[in-house]
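Components:
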Amino acid sequence: MSMWGYVILAYGIVWGAILLYVVSLKRRYRAAENELQRLSDAKES
Amino acid sequence: MPQVTGKKRKGILGAATLVFIIAGLYWGLVKAPPDAYQGDSQRIMYLHIPSILIAYLSFFLVFVGSCLYLWKREKRDDNLAYGAAEIGVLFTALTIVEGSIWGRPTWGVWWTWDARLTLTAILLLIFIGYLMLRALVEDESRAASSAAILGIIGFLDIPLIHMSVYWWRTLHQPPSILRPDKLPWENIHPELLTALAINFVAFVLLYFYMLSLRLRLGEMHEEIKARRMR
Amino acid sequence: MKLLRQTLLLLRKDLLLELRRHESLMTMFFFGAQLLFVFNFSFELTPARVSELAPGLLWLAFLFTGTLGLTQLFEGERGNHCLDALLMSPIDRGALFLAKTCFNIFLMGLVELVVMPLFWILFSLPSWQPLPALFLIVFLGNVGFCVLGTILAAVTLKARARELLLPLVLFPLMVPVILATIRCMEALLRFGELGDALPWLRLLIGFDVIFLTVGILIFDWVVDV
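Structure:
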């Protein structure tokens, strides 16, 4: 692998992992929001 | 209204983070020249150095959160410790990956037991132990207290681990042309320094952005739990 | 001093229980001895190599044996809500910590007193002279291991998969102790004196002192969980 190959590998893994984590955070956030909504709806009914 | 200003601040932080990330990518990959000795693989250092500093920052926040939690027993301090640990694991693992990939063209091997890599690996193990402890202790408040104790002890141990690993590597390693445990930013070219600085700011902003998301998530989980109990 | 008196009281209780039933001591000792046999089959331990490998092998044996002892540490208090009773009594938590730590140091110390000469016999090491000094170094390493180990054993008391979690959490934190003890032992075996390894001894003693202090201060919160 050339030098640039290693650079691209490193940058790819790093930014890929960070992106995946942020996406997972947002997904968990949305799930929590839905749960809260569900709970407050159940409380009202 | 606190919610609006909170969202606005997060939006500004997110925007600033994005700007600096793009600037950092440009400076690191395009504008900065390749290093005289290491060639283009030096560009990995623009990721590696900020990553390791963020990892240590994370552990410091775990320590702060742990101390505050044991002292005041407020959920948000425990939330800080937990969140910082989660993100800390990510950045520590990335640091190791970056270090390993950088090492391959430089030293010809994917791994070496030099001081930096070894220390980062130990830090990763401590972080993982922290998260496993949280996952395996059943009662919530007990998990928080137990983890806080571990966070404090781990943080206090880190300087000792540093000393022991550095002594171990430097007292036994014969001098070599490329000193693996020498900081790579000695005698650094100004253009490279700019790229490093921009990437560093990008990582710090990114870290706090991710942390704010994670903390908010933790707060929501607390609210869900509270509502379920009513 | 009150702390000391309470510590001795608790320690006496644990020692009496152990001397009557020998549960922990026997398992630890036989496990340690067994490891020596495993080493024999796993490594080519020629007389030339064995002196080099001795510190590391011994420490491996003691780490695993010590972990066994740690998981047993609060066994005595498990039944009949004994631990709750202890916590509700006006005893200083620091005393509980010191007592448990000393108890474990004592157990490990006994095991080491037997296993080390056994190692010397089984692998025909040339000189018995460094043994007392070696034992002292191992003892200091012991202290570090037991101090951190006791805190973490208490913290993981109610965790699932406790026998696996405890070493997972403990071992990375033990790195300074492992490195320092082995470097000192190497120096003693090779040169008969510490010499260049003196900073390692200071690091080891520093580690012991720091975490002994931290343990006494922090144990209030540990068993509060």
